[in-house]
Protein 1
Amino acid sequence: MKLKTTLLALGASILMGLAAPVAADDWAPDGPLTIQIGFGAGGSTDTMGRVLAKVMKENTGWDIVVENKPGGGGVAMFTGLSQRPPQGKLIGMGVSIPVLVQLVQRGDQLPFDVDSFDYLGTVARTELALVAGKDAPFDDIAGLVAYAKEQGTLPVATMAPPQVLLMKQTTATTGAEFNLVTADGAAEVLKLILGGQVLVGFAAGEHFPYLESGDMKVITSAGASALSYAPDQGTFADVGVSAYVDPVYYLATTKGTDPAAVAAIAAAIDEATKSPEMAEIVKNATQGEPLNLGVEGTHQMMTEGLAAAQILFAK
Amino acid sequence: MVDLTTILAGFADAFTLFNLAFVLLGVALGQFVGAVPGIGPIMAMAIAIPFTFGLDPLPAIAFLVGVNKGGLVGGAVPAILMNTPGTPDAAATAMDGHPLAKQGKPLKATKMALFSSVTGDTFSDIVLITVSAPLAILALKMGPIEVVALMIFAFSILAGLIGNSLIKGIIAAMLGLLFASIGQDPENFTPRLIFGYWDLFDGLALPSVAIGMLAISEILHRMSEAHGNVQSTIVNKDTGNPDDRRVTWAEYWSCRFTMLRGATIGTILGALPGIGSTAAAFMSYAMTKASSKDPGSFGKGNIQGIAASESANSAVVGANLIPLLTLGIPGSVGAALIISAFMIHGMQPGPLLFENQGRLVYGLFGAMIMANFVNLWVGQIGLRIWVKVVSAPESIIFASALLLCIVGVAMATSGLFGVAIMLIFAVLGYLMSSFGYSLVIFIIAFFLGPRFEKSIAQSLALTNGDLTQVFKSPVAVALLVLSVVSVIWFLRKNAQAEQGLPLDEPSE
Amino acid sequence: MLTSADRISGIFFLLFGLAMYLYVNPNYIEATEGGNISPNTVPNIVSIVMAVCGGLLALKPTNHRAHSSRSMAITGFYVALLTVGLYAMSWFGFEYVAPVLALAIMWAIGERRPLWLGLGVVVVPAVIWFLVTQILGRALP
């Protein structure tokens, strides 16, 4: 064990000397730093997380391992994270809204709450959109609601509980009935739309190539404001629905982690989000720009988000 | 779609010594890591991805393609040599591969696996390179209803693997489905049967269950046999006949229809996201056994069994790239890892991939072709080494394999919790096989269970709960009819086989 | 042991299926509103089918033979050894437990040759440690 520590210390010091770290304070992880991603491989969170890890590794010289731990829109991963000892060795990357909705709906059963974590920062805000195949007989949310009423019911592909709740709110507000088809992620939503099994579904940016190729069109934004790339399509508020879904990709670690570690990791994340590589991958994944709210800002976002979710998504 | 100059430029980019070196490195790493008990091909990919961060896109992709294809070949090695498959799909290979190895022909068995794996892989690569676009569109038309029908068909083919008791086969399948239902339910995401263990929220991890059931339970069984009685794992009674160390052309050629059928099944299932290589390997195995003139020789070292399983599970992996490249939809865990690696290297799978990045895609195809040849060549050397390694005494093989499985599962499931689950399933697997329940049926049911439940939920949503809508889908109806036919046919075959055999036959 | 193995396992699955259906599923599966398949549908169907099949098997067993009770006892010993090993690993870490566990397993199997023991107890764990922590940069359990 001693030999190992010595070797590691030696290795780390050599690495530090070689890599000339920009933001390395005194703190460096003891062994590899693992980033757990709360979604499966291949999705937008996964891709951004892996590039983030790569840039952080290049900048700091730390050994960073990326793992996927999907389930419950990130809840499985954050559950595990909250149960770990705070050693500064494991951080989680997830999306705000699914976690907040689970906290609102099942908070008494979950072994964590918003304050169970030390927040490290955010990577990007994504614009969740309702998209449809190019042949769908409606072009906006009002048309969709009218079409659903005319047909009696309309299948809609969803990929997480918040979207289910948003559609239920839509039913409650407008009286239009929807059949909710649960898909395993945006890739499956797109498959269902392309295959003609459903007309509309939710996607968080995975649909851009299909907008470009003309196979799909945007119906509306599922967020609080209109989509930056389709400002004319409006939001669910156009049909009187007050709920919205505004997912932010964020990182956190177990509460009680050494403040020096939190500061060093947060600094590394901040530096990475400013890199051109991150800008490119965030652009590819969300059409937007990297966004880091910082340690305090992320905590505030989660606290305020929970209050908002309690109003919007209460049972 | 893509003009010829782009295709040629892509291939020219690929066929350089520099890329060949990376393919070679990838194949060697994949074969080696894939063959270590407890690690397996998917872990090999997960481990390899970070190494490619510093590389240019094409060598990086060439390297990963090499790891992926090498891992496929490597995965069959522990299944054949030690009867400890690390992945469920290799369990089909073990059924005939291990008996053949025990007869003193380990090299023949592993080489047959190598050749049929490369054959199946090459077949699906050719399909991918030539007709991926139309195939992907066909696959899109397979909606949830058709997928449910296809999975029922896959289950019905399993009837061919049920031993002498239908009831015990059903119990094994039900137990698999029950364990598959642990974790969040696929539609409402509520925690189900987790008993307060939030680590189970995402379900029992497949590596824990598969390695525990298939590998550790076998090691436990063998340790109790070896207890106090040390010998080499494979009593290598070298027959002295050089033909037993190689696969003759006549033997390879005699498997041509088996491999063609396996590769076709693998390609079809691989092009449809979500079914996976396990079902393909067992469907191919069961069909080959059923259509054989001598079904009694299966499970006792028939090379046709190895050819059936390996050609099918390897074909799946090439075919997984069809929906992945053309639609951006990964069909399996392995494919999902590949897509995220591709995206990190700036490749954007999807409808515009061939137009925007045609040269890179054909570079990838070039790398795949190279990897197939390299696989054959490295395999010839690598297999000899592995056969030597497992001829060490059983004591050290078992101890090392156990340590490796512990480390491998701990890495795959991030922690000792997954290892504890592995041990529980090892005991369950040991008890089930002692009492004559099929582990393979359990594993397949466990593997397909969540997908099956989700597809049924999706179908119900799409049809508004009206199941008669199924009759509007000719594909689904055809598959359901085929399922009924195959169940009846397999059960009659089983009954016939049973009449001719003593009832003491173990039902594994 | 001729026909009793199937009776034992049949009765076990009968009771297990019933216990799941009557007690475990209702208590450990949440009820939800809406949705197309209720979370308890699949576990309930599976439990019932298992109980019925278990009952049928107990009534009409095949003549399957289980392993001898001696070999089961030996397996139980190895399982206990591994359980203790894993428990120790969660406290002391892989580096310390792995060589001891390897030694215990090899010794129990009957290995006494120092060369092979040395290889299994020292070299193999060291190689694993080197590969995992140094080459792959992962943490050992």
Note: Residues 120 and 311 of chain B are 4 Å apart (CA to CA).
Protein 2
Amino acid sequence: MTLAANSASNGIAIDAQDLTRRFGSFVAVDHITFDVKAGEVFGFLGANGAGKTTAIKMLVGLLAPSEGTAHVAGADIRTQRDEIKRSIGYMSQRFSLYADLTVRENIRLYGGIYGLTPDQIAERTKRMLDNLGLSGSVDDLVGDLPLGWKQKLAFSVALVHEPKIVFLDEPTSGVDPITRRQFWELIYAAAARGTTVFVTTHYMDEAEYCDRISIMVDGKIVELGTPAELKEKYRTETVDDVFVRLARGATKGEAA
Amino acid sequence: MNFNALRAFMVKELRHILRDRQTLTVLLMMPLVQVILFGFALRSDVRNIRLVVIDPTPDHATLDLRNRFGATSTFRIVGTYQSTDSLEPLFRAGRADVALVFDPDFASHLNGSEPARLLIAVDASDPNTGTTYLAYVRTVIQSYQAELNQPGRQVEIVTQTRMRFNPTLESVNLFVPGLIALVLVLVSALMTAISLSREKERGTMEVLLVSPLRPQQIIVGKVLPYLALAFANVITALIAAWAVFHVPFRGSVSLLLAESMLYTLVSLALGVLVAARTSSQRAAMLTAMLATMLPNALLSGMIFPIASMPSWLQPFTYIVPARWFILIARGIMLKGIGLTLLWRETLVLSIMALLLLAAAMRSFKPRLE
């Protein structure tokens, strides 16, 4: 049995070993090793510039690693990109829906790209919009929706093909606290359905919602565990305090 | 290849195109406006054409025709001679625009069975007015001929023309193929470059690359809707040229449409290449203009004849797709020739299309840099 198949059957959704990415002499991601269990909400924390987005781009297949390996849903990110593509959803840092298309048209596009039948698309569109309370806006242009709704819609669209793992790159940046709260309710709902959620954020209050978190500083993972474990270890009240103590030594990010 | 995914992607592209009404209107109107503007700018209404008549054997028939020219306000007879010797100095001195040279047997042939012969010599140093002169002369002769024709008596007047100083005539007729080439490259190269780089700039490209959609599907999905738009543009340009300027169409319409699509493919591939090498919409747009519009307009023979370019520049025209397309389009539209005579140009365009599409596919990276 190969390592990949082995880890998939072990209930491991993502495992990374010494994953590294260099841009010239700059090491954006520096030998990170971690694993994410199936069904987990995994928080990937770090300051801006710590290397979170570079790491996520390697995991979803947008960037080739310079060194190290990783498996996503049991498939090798270097050699089995096509297998990975079918099992993951991805919400990039930038808004990924088309503003000049309607809500329905966006869902139809991504549903179609992921090979859903028209019936499946119609059924999921209805379910998704009922959940979001957006049924009345199905024929509105996405560009006309308020930002919070756009983000919630983008998240639901990233899940339209019911992927095993969803990667969210700072999904809540720029949205108001109430919408962030609602957004996390959506994340929990997805996790409850068995989807593994890999989410990057620099909002430390959100870290409390995760099953486990890793903290990245200058391209390295400096801490990994449940929020409770980390708070215990550093004897602090919040993850925010843990983060501030760890990030103080950073040289690359904004925290420097 | 997953056809449903490709279809979903193409539907999206079509929606982008159809929903941006302003851009779409501009794109659809462009061939119309360009044909009309260029056409009128190139046209000049001519009066007082200075006509020289060479009539070796004057008689009632030649006098009759001469008088018809004299009676119009379009022509002014500036001299009548018996021999062609006086013609050359007059043309050289620029004192005559058109010469009408009667065959010595003109009158007798007019009543007999042989065709009556006439030579029309035109000063075509300004090519556009040259064609206009010729058209006017022909009109007068044709109406004369039509009047002589009665049931039982068919008169045949055969004219021979000689365009002096500019044997390969440039005119609005010759301009239309060049215009089609320009509109097509504008729509296809520029618009695909913009639309692809917009996806990169807005970040939607990342999501497409993470999806099971293959890079080839993204390119095909981007390219095909613009091919349809280009098709509509060729038809508009042809209709405008025909309806407004009576530009003749002698060859096969379907062959021209097929060749237009081939040329459009070349332009689309160029657009994809440009988008792959640039990182912003603005850079893509400017690069596409520089790389496609300018050479296609200036080095294709559309505006400036290739033969009159400096010899070091002429070899560069061989790599300009429009050069080949214009040869093809002029051949089909004006000469009515087909693939048997145009296969060489078609082959060049096909090779260009294949090479550029392959290069576009290669340069379009399935990963980010």
Note: Residues 1-8 of chain A have pLDDT under 50 and may be disordered.
Protein 3
Amino acid sequence: MSQKITSYPGHEITSDELKEGKYLDIQYKFVPRYSWAAGVAISRFLDELKEGRIVARKCSQCERILVPPRMYCEQCYRPTDAWVQVRDTGTVNTFSISHVGTDARRLKTPILVAVVDIDGASPGMGILHNLGEVEPASIRIGMKVQAVWKQPSERQGAITDIRYFRPIEA
Amino acid sequence: MLESPKELSFEASKMALDSAGLTLKDIQSVVSGSAPDAFDGVHMKGEYYLDGMGAIGKPHERVYVGGGTGVFTPIGGWWNVASGMYDTVLCVAEEKMSPLHPHPQYAFWSIFDQILERPLGTTLLWIFSLEMRRYMHKYGIKEEEIAEVAVKNKGNAIDHPSAQLGAKITVNDVMNSEPICSPVKRLDVSPPSDGAAAVVLVSEKVAKKLTDEPVWLDGVGWTLDSTHWTNRDLAYPEYVEKAAKMAYKMAGIKNPRKEIDIAEPYDPFDYKELHHLEGLQLAGKGEAPKMTVDGVTQRDGDLPVCPSGGLLGVGNPIAAAGMMKICELFWQLRGEAGKRQVKKDARTGVAQAWGDLMQVGTVAVMRS
């Protein structure tokens, strides 16, 4: 059957050919504006961040304490039951040193990224955030960290009200 | 590539039809696959590329589960045939990533949570590097062991006529390549690509008229996990396990390690091949690196893995890359893979793709 295929088609374009203007290059920018509904659970979560607190939702059936909070438990498939304040400390579950930005452009100063498992929530309940006040080479999985908050007057009710997580001195 | 999405789709579809000895008139329905519209900047991409897909005036559906789309496309075709609706289905996957500037990575920014994650400056590379780090940590795996996958796959791709990045490289080359998102380095990653791939799927009675040596799609499976990826065990892809078990059960496979002869798991990053081999139950948890270092997964090994050259070597036109794996199994199981033909007599193969926020597993078991 495949012996009937005698050649594999396709014309490669090199980046030099593009730079030389060999092909017409139509540029188009799409700049939409959105207002997203944060939702019932995340709106409360953001309000609490503004106050310097991290909150979770508890499902009394599976007894999980969920961060980020949700109004329903996706495992039990029922409404969650209560708000629980958790701590602003946690453990580095995993981390990365990112030398690229959102559009893959190279950064002069790398961004330190981590999944931080939040103390007081169920095991493995992590959130994505940045690390700071730490040398990249000294970051370790299992490291205890604490949120560094913006000044109350600077907070907007956003995930960035936490500037980053920094190591807790042993 | 110079070819437009429609032209890429046409070329792949025509090759598949020619290979099967059929024309478009013989095809009753078309299933297409393509990943984010954001790459092309063409909303309703499934309707846009329709004529290149040979789907004008025919029942057509576009399936989409992010990077899992390539293997999901023939699964969609399988629904068409298994339901009894159609006897002949053309399955085409197409992707053109090059239109988006400054880099197609940018399209992935909008898959992250818009309230809690995007404000942190996310890039898709983050989740891969975070997952790779957790995988290494949990099982004590070294970056050098993971790099062996890139060396193998780029080497295999030298023999693929459509390969973008076939090359003879060493573990040192990978280790010394640019750190992009540590621990991910440049040569750990597949490239952005343009491409298309297609297969013809037919019912049993039609298959027997077309050829004495059909390749059967004997089992399919697919599952998704939640987008709450930071709440998940990042060291093990449970959704791949669930999809694999669904496909194995359908194919009557009880012991995958003994019964699977050849595998084409999704390898957009070198560690992902290892992760997926474990999810596919072809290696114990944390044991896939050693299999690779020991040469088990080479073309002449006991379990050849990505003999095509994979995404790391052939390229990663998202949906088309998964379908390329289905095509590779078709050729391998018929003994028509030429220079890429594996040494062992391969009769049963598994292809798998993966995608979105580390949450999709799509699996197909094929037999000759």
Note: The longest strand of chain A covers residues 106-118.
Protein 4
Amino acid sequence: MSTSTANPTSSGPRSGPNLKSIVIWTAVAVVGAVCWAMLALSRGEDVSALWILFAALASYAIAYRFYSKFIADKVLKVDDTRATPAERLENGQDFDVTDRRVLFGHHFAAIAGAGPLVGPVLAAQMGYLPGTIWIIVGVIFAGAVQDMVVMFFSMRRDGKSLGQMVREEIGTVAGVAALIAVFAIMIIILAVLALVVVNALAESPWGVFSIGLTIPIALFMGFYLRYLRPGRVSEVTVIGVALLLLAIIGGGYVEEMGLADALTLSHETLVICLVVYGFVASILPVWMLLTPRDYLSTFMKVGVIVLLAVGLVLAAPALQNEAVTDFATNGEGPVFAGKLFPFVFITIACGALSGFHALIASGTTPKMVAKESQVRMIGYGGMLMESFVAISALIAASVIDQGIYFSMNASLGATGGTPETAAAFVNGLGFSITPADLEAAAASVEESIISRTGGAPTLAFGMSLIFTEAFGGGLAAFWYHFAIMFEALFILTAVDAGTRVGRFMLQDTIGNVWKRYADTSWRPAAWSASALVVLAWGYMLWIGVGDPLGGINQLFPLFGIANQLLAAIALTLATTLLIKHGKLKWAWVPGIPLVWDLIVTMTASWQKVFSDNPAIGYFAQASAAREARDAGELYGVAKTPADVDQIIYNSTQSGILQAAFALLVIVIVAGAAVTVVKAIRAGGLPTTEVPKVESKIVAPSDFFATKEEKEAVREWEASQKTPVS
Amino acid sequence: MSLLTERVSDRFSGAWRLLRQATGEAKWDEYVARCERDGVEPMSRRAFERHRADEKEHNPQARCC
């Protein structure tokens, strides 16, 4: 590992690789190769999920050890003698030198959410292999590279945001396009995430009871920290988690408490609850609800991921789906329409490459990095961890009986909503299941399991299988609701925080023309901006739940493409900056994932806009429905003429949004192409990089400090304690 | 104390310190230490945490998907 610190005595001449490390890395490579071979070659018999798990871990280890080090040393040339913004501008607030392991935790908590859990679950309809390959290969060559490179460039610019960097380094037009794209994409993401929660909680009194209780629990924690025992975060988190577990257990008794009817809410009621909640949460002081909820959510996030990893190893379940299903090639899958290329890449989204991460990797995290070399562990390492979450989710979805999987994930229009009709539909797909099987599965988790779309219920079902197998005890219903709680908590935190960030962005933008509006403590501005943001995602959410074709089926592709388009913006910026810095020969590092991502997103956008297959093309769907209406008929799964009108309206709107996103990205890429040509001709261009200032602090670069690093840190700390004057 | 227990307690206090940094509780420890060094009377914990909450109020951090 790199030992270059500010202390010159610690960086001696490097000897070649020693025998021990050669042996270790050869062993890791062999393990990885064997696991991949097993996945590639076994067909027809039971394939253990552990092959996927260990193929992933071995690949991550090798990529981290070699590729990320190459990027740090050769491509970015991280320089530990250069002071980071945290060191130069330290103010104890946003600029703050932070222990690398703590910052890794913060960064991971900020990037990981429901996305890597939901996407792979939906993608499992094409089999386990396409998802596995893309999650692993994608993260190594695209997702982790994007996070690390964007973090590095933002760090070299005092933590500028993605939008700011695009404006200053590519051009004003591109900057404006990026700003609009970021805002619009955020609204779509919030709407889709909220839709996942609504679908998981609708008609589920247990879920509503447990999730509903998180609000008073968070309020209690907030007041505890404000008035009773200020600042005791660990203590209140322990209390909060205990209350959370009680809320999950208590949910099992809603029937006995006589609350079942009152808490059985329809999709529409839940949308209204969420919108009201989102508005209130974003105008309340953060200490009341947002901060304590974030503590709970972070704790659950880390806890459940560890639990899931342990559970998978103990249970060692066999995969139930095929390596590659027919839906991959015929594009007629009931979960989402379209063929493997490009839709598997769109659907998996966050676990392999997530544009949204670029918003976190620029701005917040780079202002806290102690040493430049740490972007490798925090940026690249953090994203590998997220990918691992996605792999776990893919496995959880793949160990479920395929009849159950498709009953849960096909839209209500397709399954008809009863065990008999659902079984008939699934049998029609070529999987055998009886209504009694479906009823037994539903009874095991004490929830209806037909057309519980959105990914969250499927993941919860898979996790309950794994945990029951691993830890025993017939607690399937508890584990199911535990998993739902864990996902809903993530999502509600993302909705709270996202609404707030959206509100600040909106106030800032309007503030350019009306100065006073930018004042975030001015109530009329704060309230109206919050209301606008909430109404924007609330509107999309409303459209989603009312969609006769199934909101997830319609909105998830929009979400996936939007997220991948944001990644295209981030990778464009990264490639342009490398070339401006005169590093044309390394431009392929972000350049190859950029080209791939553009091919995927533009193909998907093209198909979604121009395909004449109504199952894929939004406008084709609208016109097919219009023809049916004009002929006085119903269309597809529509049951009333109003449904047909709804389909026409929704599809047209989605098509317009889809086209608009793609156009915004094309504007940015075209702007970047001009800059790149200029930069290549001139052999590089000046950038807004902050000039070097010599670093005075000493800190290790990787997860585990080397002996030399520890020694250097010790010497430095000792020198700090003796006052110079 | 034997060498072993010393090492274990070192590890433990190291982990505890990291945890306090992760929850932000260490900010208070650092502040008190700084006040001591500068010979200033520190403000109350309550006032300090309020001050921190006000900062958070104006620096929202996005949570990803």
Note: Chain A has a mean pLDDT of 93.
